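User: Hi! I'm a student and our assignment asks us to look at how structure tokens line up with a sequence. Could you show me two examples?

Assistant: Happy to help. In each example below, the sequence comes first and the structure tokens follow. Example one:
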Amino acid sequence: MKECRNSRLRSSLFAAVMSSLLLAAVFICPVSVLSAQTRDAAAFAALSDGMQFYFGSLHGHSLYSDGTGFPAQVFTWARDTAGFDFYVVTDHSQQLTQAEWDDTGVQTGIYSIDGSFVAMRGFEWSHATYGHINVFGTVDYTDTTASPDLGSIYGWIAARDALAQFNHPARKTAYFEGFAYDQAVSDNLCLYETGNGPTGNIDEAHYERYPVALDQGWRLAPTNNQDNHSLHAYSNRTVIISPQLSEDALLDALRKRRVYSSDDPDMRVIFKQGEHWMGSVVEDCKETVQFDVAVEDDENIASLELVTAGGVIAARKDFGFGEDSKKVVWSPSVGVQGNGYYFLRVVERDENGDDDTGSGFQVAVTAPIWLEVKGTNWYLAEGCTAGGFETWVLVQNPGDSPAQVTLTFMTENGPVPGPQATLPPATRLSFNAGQFVNSFHVSTKVDSDQPVVAERAVYWGNRTGGHDSIGVTAPAQLWYLAEGCTAGGFETWVLVQNPGDSPAQVTLTFMTENGPVAGPQATLPPATRLSFNAGQFVNSFHVSTQVESDRPIVAERAVYWGDRTEGHDSIGFPGD
């Protein structure tokens, strides 16, 4: 993830686009001035950065549960009558048979045509006490008999790395146990219905609990689904921002929370911080952060609101009656004093009369952008808990407030949840990674709600050998490691961690007294760590390493000698 300071570059590029358009207006059309609407349309194009906006629904039923029509009829209606880009049939799982589940899957293959329409299958876990949850991206399903409580359905979802959504959360205040946070499923449970059926964002029935769930620690994107039990379409839509229209691309965008909830069927909304779209986590933020907003529709916008914790409006921009506000841009700035989140709420005048509530207004709500200040995230690329090695993660809280700390270990096979703890002010705790993971390839991410300091120590040979390094607070795309030796009985290992949610293409180049030597290339899946033995590529007493990646990563280097009786280690130096 890029740091917030990258927003300055993004803002400069944005300004350059605007300047070019103004110059074009002066020199090409000297008689007229470029209109605000034309400038705002150009700004929208520049900010969209090649992304497309797909309108549909993630919640609907067929006659396999309590809806109307077979799945084939539902998908035909969704594509040809409702005009959706995507539609998900999510029948109540306790009413499904295996044959019906299988048929729904067959129909998705028949009706999906990449670039035209995507039909998907999910299911709705429906519990009278704990609430309803939609689950996407699985080959099987479960129900409230096999998974009778939140703990069991959360475990089922996490075990399959599925995606899930809190459905119509305001029906009962006791639903989802008050949104009690569960780290084990936090990457998977990524969606929240702020609108459901005829109940959209405008009446705030489900929207009002959205900040409640966010404030518990969930990272949720809002959705606005049909939940229709007949072949009738409401005006509301879930909008997925994706480079292309395919099932894989849409599921990837959902996982990244690049989603917004709209009462209007075709409003396009951009909410970004620098290059980071809605749904992103932006690390290592400075004291002031600027957001970029652009909205387009065929109805006039009434207001834009930047909303933060507790539903508090941090900034607002209003557009008066009679003002031409169908295409608008806005660049609000906020002061950052600690970790937090901000999302955009758009209110427009329902001039087309397509809102089902008849309120005269329609509302769109985006996924938040989460901001994290320097020192609240730490990355430790090295670590080993197999073959007689011990790895200890050491966390210091030098502040005057308690720090809530969460560790996540990253291995060659993906992430492994680690411990959670509260560090009182001016304390230190030690975490034994071997209690949670057994691997030769272990990296660690430390998340905290307060600035802390994290270090890592590794021991081996019954603690006759050991090395240690401080962590880093942000990943980067370029790393330098000056030390290294692969001759005379020395080993040099380059340890690369990909803490992001996208694969990273990594290239190593070794530098010796005789010049550069090409090293390995590899793809690191999200939340993984790989180890590279420099001795397989170069034999020299003088070895440095450059690590390049197309995604932000973390690189560290360990050297061993004397048949691994001794060793030392250091984090790398990040390049620009």
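Example two works the same way, sequence first and then tokens:
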Amino acid sequence: MKGNIYIFPIFLFLSILSIFGLSCFSSDNAEKSNVNMNYFYVYPSESYPYNIYPKTPFQISLIIKESDNLPWKVCLLSFQDPAFKYSGDFCINSEEVAYSKYEYNIVLPKDGYISLEEPELLTSQSYSVNALLCYQYKSIFMLNGCISSRKICNLNINSTTVNSPIAINKAYFSPSPNGVDLVVEFSINNIQNTSNFYVTKENVLNSCNLNSFNVKNISFNYKIFIYTSDIKINNTYSYTSSINKDNKYILRVNFGKVSDMDNIVVMLTFDYYVTSVYVLPSVNVIKS
């Protein structure tokens, strides 16, 4: 049994290596290459109600596109003031919607409608529409270069998506008193320019509200996988940091005493949840 522990990770590792063609990379530069893959997007469908009328029921119809069939939850934040009446649930999750070709078609409220009952309470002809997005996200990076206990080795950085909320800016192996450290400098990117954008390791799908985790911190889980004749690592770690105004973060993992090698590949997987407020197109209120 012991000899089979790494069979699946090795297969995945080699499959990703073949995708990126990492054997052709030079370890002299920390150049970044990306494979374009959209991950999680929300936008109005063709039946989105750009115009609404008094006492005429309507729903907010949206399309969600994502690439990995990971769980999500979307909650409508608007239309809950006294001018409107509604029925049904203002939240919907991925388990309640059919998934087809990386796409979901959803309507909110679920199993209900919204109706503008008292238009005189609205002070503007344009009404803002916001939704709260909560979803799981995985970012996979391949780091390629030398490892040495005598010098710093900059690593090439490759990712399966150009739209990852976690963006690695620099990665390198550095000598340390305890052997060799893997050092990763990264930032958190608000990929859709939404408000209240947070990254957390806490599962926020059940509650899906901005009070469900500590918004003063960022946190995530990450896994490092390496398999060579000298280094065998398949470990999961946890990272937590207060939010930095300069958006610069560093994680450091000690590998202990290792032999120098000219070429090593590290698979680094970040696993986390994202919560953000997404601004949808405003609707026009037709009062007469």
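Here is something you could point out in your write-up. The helical segments are 7-20.
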